[in-house]
Fold:
Amino acid sequence: MKNLILVSLITILTACGGSSNDIIPSPTLAPTAEPTAEPTAEPTAEPTAEPTAEPTAEPTAEPTVEPTVEPTVEPTVEPTAEPTSILSNGNLNEGDGDEFTNWGKWNGGPNLTAVTDSCSGRALQAASSGGNAWELQFVSDEVTMVADTQYTASMWIKADAADGIVRFSLNGASPQYGVDETVATGDWQQITSSFTANDTNTRLQLDLGASSVTYTIDNIALVEGGTALAGVCPENNPELLLNSDLETGDGGEFTNWGKWNGDTVLTVTTTEVHSGSRALQAASPGGNAWEVQFVSDAATTEVGKAYTASMWIKGAVADGVVRFSTNTDGATDAQYGPDTTIGTDWQNITWGFTADSTSTRLVLDLGASNVTYYIDEISLKE
Ligand SMILES: [Ca+2]
Ligand SMILES: [Ca+2]
Structure:
Protein backbone atom coordinates (compact mmCIF):
# COMPACT_ATOMS: atom_id res chain seq x y z
CA MET A 1 0.00 0.00 0.00
CA LYS A 2 2.68 2.51 1.04
CA ASN A 3 4.70 1.49 -1.92
CA LEU A 4 1.81 2.03 -4.19
CA ILE A 5 1.22 5.49 -2.72
CA LEU A 6 4.93 6.29 -3.02
CA VAL A 7 4.99 5.14 -6.63
CA SER A 8 1.94 7.21 -7.32
CA LEU A 9 3.53 10.29 -5.68
CA ILE A 10 6.76 9.86 -7.68
CA THR A 11 4.74 9.56 -10.83
CA ILE A 12 2.86 12.75 -9.99
CA LEU A 13 6.04 14.60 -9.03
CA THR A 14 7.80 13.44 -12.22
CA ALA A 15 4.87 14.60 -14.18
CA CYS A 16 5.19 17.96 -12.50
CA GLY A 17 8.85 18.14 -13.38
CA GLY A 18 10.10 17.76 -9.77
CA SER A 19 12.90 15.57 -8.59
CA SER A 20 11.96 12.16 -7.26
CA ASN A 21 14.33 12.91 -4.38
CA ASP A 22 12.16 15.80 -2.95
CA ILE A 23 10.64 14.43 0.37
CA ILE A 24 6.98 15.38 0.80
CA PRO A 25 5.45 14.54 4.21
CA SER A 26 2.87 11.94 3.71
CA PRO A 27 -0.61 13.08 4.90
CA THR A 28 -1.65 11.73 8.28
CA LEU A 29 -4.72 9.55 8.00
CA ALA A 30 -7.50 10.28 10.49
CA PRO A 31 -7.69 7.28 12.82
CA THR A 32 -10.94 5.52 12.46
CA ALA A 33 -12.43 5.21 15.99
CA GLU A 34 -13.17 1.66 16.83
CA PRO A 35 -16.77 1.49 18.18
CA THR A 36 -16.66 0.76 21.86
CA ALA A 37 -19.06 -2.02 22.70
CA GLU A 38 -21.69 -0.98 25.22
CA PRO A 39 -21.09 -3.10 28.29
CA THR A 40 -24.05 -5.35 28.80
CA ALA A 41 -25.15 -4.87 32.38
CA GLU A 42 -25.40 -8.09 34.28
CA PRO A 43 -28.94 -8.31 35.66
CA THR A 44 -28.75 -7.90 39.38
CA ALA A 45 -30.78 -10.60 41.00
CA GLU A 46 -33.61 -9.20 43.11
CA PRO A 47 -32.94 -10.23 46.65
CA THR A 48 -35.69 -12.54 47.76
CA ALA A 49 -37.11 -11.01 50.90
CA GLU A 50 -37.32 -13.35 53.78
CA PRO A 51 -40.94 -13.26 54.87
CA THR A 52 -41.03 -11.59 58.21
CA ALA A 53 -43.48 -13.21 60.51
CA GLU A 54 -46.24 -10.79 61.52
CA PRO A 55 -45.77 -10.21 65.17
CA THR A 56 -48.86 -11.34 66.99
CA ALA A 57 -49.96 -8.28 68.81
CA GLU A 58 -50.38 -8.82 72.47
CA PRO A 59 -53.76 -7.48 73.25
CA THR A 60 -53.12 -4.31 75.07
CA ALA A 61 -55.56 -3.70 77.81
CA GLU A 62 -57.50 -0.57 77.17
CA PRO A 63 -56.34 1.89 79.68
CA THR A 64 -59.24 2.71 81.86
CA VAL A 65 -59.85 6.34 81.20
CA GLU A 66 -60.85 8.18 84.24
CA PRO A 67 -63.89 10.04 83.16
CA THR A 68 -62.98 13.65 82.96
CA VAL A 69 -65.51 15.74 84.68
CA GLU A 70 -67.12 17.81 81.93
CA PRO A 71 -66.67 21.43 82.73
CA THR A 72 -70.04 22.78 83.55
CA VAL A 73 -70.97 25.02 80.66
CA GLU A 74 -73.01 27.99 81.58
CA PRO A 75 -76.24 27.30 79.79
CA THR A 76 -76.71 29.77 76.99
CA VAL A 77 -80.19 31.09 77.18
CA GLU A 78 -81.77 30.06 73.90
CA PRO A 79 -84.20 32.60 72.65
CA THR A 80 -87.59 31.09 73.31
CA ALA A 81 -88.93 29.91 69.99
CA GLU A 82 -92.40 31.01 69.05
CA PRO A 83 -94.64 28.06 69.94
CA THR A 84 -96.36 26.31 67.08
CA SER A 85 -100.10 25.96 67.07
CA ILE A 86 -101.29 22.35 67.12
CA LEU A 87 -104.40 23.23 65.11
CA SER A 88 -104.61 22.64 61.36
CA ASN A 89 -105.91 25.45 59.14
CA GLY A 90 -106.09 27.82 62.09
CA ASN A 91 -105.96 30.74 59.65
CA LEU A 92 -109.15 29.35 58.04
CA ASN A 93 -107.81 30.03 54.55
CA GLU A 94 -108.42 26.47 53.31
CA GLY A 95 -111.87 25.28 52.40
CA ASP A 96 -114.59 25.60 49.77
CA GLY A 97 -117.61 27.85 49.96
CA ASP A 98 -118.63 28.14 53.58
CA GLU A 99 -116.68 25.06 54.66
CA PHE A 100 -113.38 25.26 56.54
CA THR A 101 -110.94 22.38 56.18
CA ASN A 102 -110.21 20.72 59.56
CA TRP A 103 -113.12 22.47 61.25
CA GLY A 104 -116.68 21.38 61.96
CA LYS A 105 -119.93 23.19 62.71
CA TRP A 106 -121.59 21.35 65.57
CA ASN A 107 -124.45 23.70 66.23
CA GLY A 108 -125.83 26.65 64.28
CA GLY A 109 -124.12 25.59 61.06
CA PRO A 110 -126.08 27.84 58.67
CA ASN A 111 -124.95 30.86 60.68
CA LEU A 112 -121.28 29.93 60.33
CA THR A 113 -120.07 31.19 56.94
CA ALA A 114 -116.90 32.26 55.15
CA VAL A 115 -116.01 35.91 54.55
CA THR A 116 -112.93 37.62 53.19
CA ASP A 117 -112.98 40.68 55.44
CA SER A 118 -110.37 39.18 57.68
CA CYS A 119 -106.94 39.26 59.23
CA SER A 120 -105.66 37.26 56.28
CA GLY A 121 -107.61 35.69 53.46
CA ARG A 122 -110.77 33.85 54.51
CA ALA A 123 -112.32 34.15 57.92
CA LEU A 124 -115.31 32.77 59.81
CA GLN A 125 -118.42 34.85 60.18
CA ALA A 126 -120.58 33.70 63.08
CA ALA A 127 -124.01 35.31 63.22
CA SER A 128 -125.40 34.56 66.67
CA SER A 129 -129.03 35.24 67.51
CA GLY A 130 -128.38 34.92 71.27
CA GLY A 131 -129.14 31.92 73.47
CA ASN A 132 -126.92 29.25 74.97
CA ALA A 133 -123.19 29.50 74.31
CA TRP A 134 -123.12 26.01 72.78
CA GLU A 135 -125.88 26.75 70.28
CA LEU A 136 -123.34 28.22 67.87
CA GLN A 137 -120.24 26.02 67.90
CA PHE A 138 -117.22 25.95 65.64
CA VAL A 139 -115.05 22.93 66.46
CA SER A 140 -111.55 21.86 65.42
CA ASP A 141 -110.55 18.41 64.29
CA GLU A 142 -109.25 16.25 67.15
CA VAL A 143 -105.78 17.25 68.31
CA THR A 144 -103.23 15.40 70.42
CA MET A 145 -102.34 17.05 73.70
CA VAL A 146 -100.18 16.08 76.66
CA ALA A 147 -102.39 15.47 79.68
CA ASP A 148 -101.78 17.67 82.73
CA THR A 149 -99.98 20.20 80.54
CA GLN A 150 -101.00 23.78 80.10
CA TYR A 151 -102.21 25.05 76.73
CA THR A 152 -103.41 28.43 75.58
CA ALA A 153 -106.07 28.97 72.94
CA SER A 154 -106.39 32.24 71.03
CA MET A 155 -108.35 33.79 68.19
CA TRP A 156 -108.68 37.14 66.50
CA ILE A 157 -112.22 38.42 66.56
CA LYS A 158 -114.28 41.50 65.88
CA ALA A 159 -117.94 42.14 66.48
CA ASP A 160 -120.66 44.24 64.87
CA ALA A 161 -122.22 45.10 68.23
CA ALA A 162 -120.91 45.66 71.74
CA ASP A 163 -120.80 43.21 74.64
CA GLY A 164 -120.84 39.93 72.75
CA ILE A 165 -119.88 37.03 75.05
CA VAL A 166 -117.74 34.19 73.65
CA ARG A 167 -115.68 31.43 75.20
CA PHE A 168 -113.32 28.62 74.32
CA SER A 169 -113.85 25.08 75.55
CA LEU A 170 -112.03 21.76 75.22
CA ASN A 171 -113.96 18.65 74.27
CA GLY A 172 -111.90 15.90 75.91
CA ALA A 173 -112.64 13.15 78.45
CA SER A 174 -114.69 15.70 80.31
CA PRO A 175 -115.45 19.13 78.87
CA GLN A 176 -113.45 22.09 80.07
CA TYR A 177 -114.88 25.56 79.72
CA GLY A 178 -112.89 28.74 79.49
CA VAL A 179 -114.04 31.98 81.01
CA ASP A 180 -116.60 34.15 79.25
CA GLU A 181 -114.88 36.90 77.29
CA THR A 182 -116.53 40.13 76.24
CA VAL A 183 -115.80 41.28 72.70
CA ALA A 184 -115.65 45.01 72.09
CA THR A 185 -116.68 46.56 68.80
CA GLY A 186 -114.18 48.20 66.47
CA ASP A 187 -110.82 46.75 65.55
CA TRP A 188 -109.83 43.10 65.52
CA GLN A 189 -108.82 41.94 68.99
CA GLN A 190 -107.22 38.76 70.29
CA ILE A 191 -109.08 36.64 72.85
CA THR A 192 -107.13 34.00 74.78
CA SER A 193 -107.91 31.27 77.28
CA SER A 194 -105.58 28.83 79.08
CA PHE A 195 -106.37 25.24 80.00
CA THR A 196 -104.61 22.32 81.67
CA ALA A 197 -105.31 19.40 79.36
CA ASN A 198 -107.24 16.53 80.95
CA ASP A 199 -107.02 14.19 77.96
CA THR A 200 -104.58 13.32 75.20
CA ASN A 201 -107.19 13.72 72.46
CA THR A 202 -109.50 16.65 72.40
CA ARG A 203 -110.99 19.35 70.22
CA LEU A 204 -110.93 23.11 70.60
CA GLN A 205 -114.44 24.57 70.55
CA LEU A 206 -115.53 28.14 70.01
CA ASP A 207 -118.81 28.67 71.85
CA LEU A 208 -120.30 31.71 70.14
CA GLY A 209 -124.04 31.45 70.80
CA ALA A 210 -124.56 33.52 73.95
CA SER A 211 -125.20 36.97 72.49
CA SER A 212 -127.07 38.49 69.59
CA VAL A 213 -123.90 39.61 67.82
CA THR A 214 -122.24 38.83 64.49
CA TYR A 215 -118.55 38.05 64.86
CA THR A 216 -115.75 37.74 62.37
CA ILE A 217 -113.05 35.32 63.50
CA ASP A 218 -109.62 34.47 62.09
CA ASN A 219 -106.22 33.06 63.08
CA ILE A 220 -107.30 30.56 65.74
CA ALA A 221 -104.38 28.94 67.58
CA LEU A 222 -103.73 26.43 70.35
CA VAL A 223 -100.21 26.32 71.76
CA GLU A 224 -98.51 24.61 74.67
CA GLY A 225 -97.77 26.87 77.63
CA GLY A 226 -99.47 29.76 79.27
CA THR A 227 -98.82 32.37 76.60
CA ALA A 228 -100.96 32.81 73.51
CA LEU A 229 -99.46 32.66 70.07
CA ALA A 230 -98.24 36.15 69.40
CA GLY A 231 -98.99 37.96 66.23
CA VAL A 232 -101.06 40.74 64.99
CA CYS A 233 -103.97 41.01 62.69
CA PRO A 234 -102.29 42.60 59.68
CA GLU A 235 -105.49 44.07 58.34
CA ASN A 236 -106.70 45.74 61.46
CA ASN A 237 -107.78 48.82 59.61
CA PRO A 238 -111.44 48.86 58.79
CA GLU A 239 -112.70 49.00 55.24
CA LEU A 240 -113.72 52.57 54.44
CA LEU A 241 -115.85 51.79 51.39
CA LEU A 242 -119.37 50.51 51.69
CA ASN A 243 -120.33 47.44 49.64
CA SER A 244 -116.63 46.87 48.95
CA ASP A 245 -117.35 43.30 47.81
CA LEU A 246 -120.10 44.51 45.42
CA GLU A 247 -122.51 41.87 46.73
CA THR A 248 -125.30 44.35 47.37
CA GLY A 249 -127.39 45.82 44.56
CA ASP A 250 -130.11 45.03 42.04
CA GLY A 251 -128.95 43.60 38.74
CA GLY A 252 -126.40 45.92 37.18
CA GLU A 253 -126.70 48.48 40.01
CA PHE A 254 -124.30 48.45 42.93
CA THR A 255 -125.38 49.99 46.21
CA ASN A 256 -123.00 52.78 47.34
CA TRP A 257 -121.40 52.99 43.90
CA GLY A 258 -122.04 55.36 41.00
CA LYS A 259 -121.46 55.18 37.25
CA TRP A 260 -120.26 58.64 36.29
CA ASN A 261 -119.33 57.86 32.71
CA GLY A 262 -119.88 54.80 30.55
CA ASP A 263 -123.11 53.84 32.33
CA THR A 264 -124.15 51.43 29.58
CA VAL A 265 -120.91 49.40 29.67
CA LEU A 266 -120.87 49.02 33.48
CA THR A 267 -122.90 45.93 34.42
CA VAL A 268 -122.85 43.02 36.84
CA THR A 269 -121.25 39.62 36.33
CA THR A 270 -122.23 36.63 38.44
CA THR A 271 -119.73 34.24 36.87
CA GLU A 272 -116.46 36.17 36.80
CA VAL A 273 -116.40 36.93 40.55
CA HIS A 274 -113.42 37.01 42.90
CA SER A 275 -115.59 36.54 45.97
CA GLY A 276 -119.24 36.05 46.66
CA SER A 277 -121.64 35.99 43.73
CA ARG A 278 -121.40 39.48 42.20
CA ALA A 279 -118.66 41.53 40.58
CA LEU A 280 -118.46 44.53 38.23
CA GLN A 281 -118.13 43.97 34.48
CA ALA A 282 -116.77 46.97 32.60
CA ALA A 283 -116.77 46.60 28.80
CA SER A 284 -114.67 49.60 27.84
CA PRO A 285 -114.78 50.58 24.15
CA GLY A 286 -111.41 52.38 24.49
CA GLY A 287 -110.85 56.14 24.57
CA ASN A 288 -110.09 58.48 27.46
CA ALA A 289 -109.52 56.92 30.88
CA TRP A 290 -112.32 59.02 32.43
CA GLU A 291 -114.90 57.93 29.84
CA VAL A 292 -115.68 54.79 31.89
CA GLN A 293 -115.83 55.66 35.58
CA PHE A 294 -117.03 53.63 38.56
CA VAL A 295 -117.10 55.76 41.69
CA SER A 296 -117.55 54.94 45.39
CA ASP A 297 -119.64 56.87 47.87
CA ALA A 298 -117.53 59.39 49.75
CA ALA A 299 -115.48 57.93 52.60
CA THR A 300 -114.33 59.92 55.60
CA THR A 301 -110.61 60.57 55.32
CA GLU A 302 -108.13 62.61 57.32
CA VAL A 303 -106.09 65.25 55.52
CA GLY A 304 -102.40 64.28 55.49
CA LYS A 305 -102.99 60.61 56.31
CA ALA A 306 -101.83 57.82 54.00
CA TYR A 307 -104.45 55.55 52.47
CA THR A 308 -104.29 52.48 50.25
CA ALA A 309 -106.77 51.77 47.50
CA SER A 310 -106.92 48.27 46.03
CA MET A 311 -109.08 46.05 43.87
CA TRP A 312 -109.14 42.61 42.33
CA ILE A 313 -109.26 42.83 38.54
CA LYS A 314 -108.72 40.77 35.42
CA GLY A 315 -109.26 41.39 31.71
CA ALA A 316 -111.10 39.26 29.16
CA VAL A 317 -108.02 40.02 27.07
CA ALA A 318 -104.60 41.24 28.21
CA ASP A 319 -102.96 44.68 28.15
CA GLY A 320 -105.87 46.90 29.16
CA VAL A 321 -104.76 49.99 31.09
CA VAL A 322 -106.62 51.26 34.15
CA ARG A 323 -105.94 53.63 37.03
CA PHE A 324 -107.33 54.80 40.35
CA SER A 325 -108.10 58.42 41.08
CA THR A 326 -109.85 60.46 43.76
CA ASN A 327 -112.78 62.85 43.70
CA THR A 328 -113.38 65.27 46.54
CA ASP A 329 -116.43 67.32 45.48
CA GLY A 330 -114.29 70.05 43.94
CA ALA A 331 -112.76 71.07 47.27
CA THR A 332 -109.37 69.89 46.06
CA ASP A 333 -107.93 68.64 42.78
CA ALA A 334 -108.27 65.00 41.90
CA GLN A 335 -105.28 62.77 42.52
CA TYR A 336 -104.37 60.14 39.93
CA GLY A 337 -102.72 56.78 40.42
CA PRO A 338 -100.35 55.30 37.84
CA ASP A 339 -101.56 53.59 34.68
CA THR A 340 -101.59 49.86 35.41
CA THR A 341 -101.62 47.14 32.76
CA ILE A 342 -104.00 44.29 33.45
CA GLY A 343 -103.58 40.63 32.50
CA THR A 344 -106.18 37.89 32.14
CA ASP A 345 -105.68 36.36 35.61
CA TRP A 346 -107.13 37.89 38.77
CA GLN A 347 -104.65 40.32 40.27
CA ASN A 348 -104.82 42.69 43.22
CA ILE A 349 -103.64 46.16 42.27
CA THR A 350 -103.01 48.86 44.85
CA TRP A 351 -102.39 52.59 44.96
CA GLY A 352 -101.20 54.56 47.95
CA PHE A 353 -102.02 58.25 48.30
CA THR A 354 -102.20 60.91 50.97
CA ALA A 355 -105.64 62.31 51.56
CA ASP A 356 -106.11 66.01 50.84
CA SER A 357 -109.72 66.17 51.93
CA THR A 358 -111.93 65.03 54.79
CA SER A 359 -114.21 63.30 52.29
CA THR A 360 -112.86 61.20 49.44
CA ARG A 361 -114.48 59.18 46.68
CA LEU A 362 -112.42 56.42 45.10
CA VAL A 363 -112.70 56.49 41.30
CA LEU A 364 -111.87 53.64 38.90
CA ASP A 365 -110.87 55.09 35.52
CA LEU A 366 -111.47 52.22 33.13
CA GLY A 367 -111.94 53.88 29.72
CA ALA A 368 -108.46 53.89 28.19
CA SER A 369 -108.45 50.50 26.43
CA ASN A 370 -110.88 48.45 24.39
CA VAL A 371 -111.02 45.70 27.03
CA THR A 372 -113.72 44.08 29.16
CA TYR A 373 -112.66 43.97 32.83
CA TYR A 374 -114.02 42.02 35.78
CA ILE A 375 -113.57 43.80 39.11
CA ASP A 376 -114.34 42.77 42.70
CA GLU A 377 -113.41 43.68 46.30
CA ILE A 378 -112.64 47.36 45.76
CA SER A 379 -111.06 48.61 48.96
CA LEU A 380 -109.91 51.80 50.65
CA LYS A 381 -108.08 51.53 53.96
CA GLU A 382 -105.88 53.63 56.12
CA1 LIG B 1 -107.65 33.74 57.41
CA1 LIG C 1 -118.08 40.11 45.06
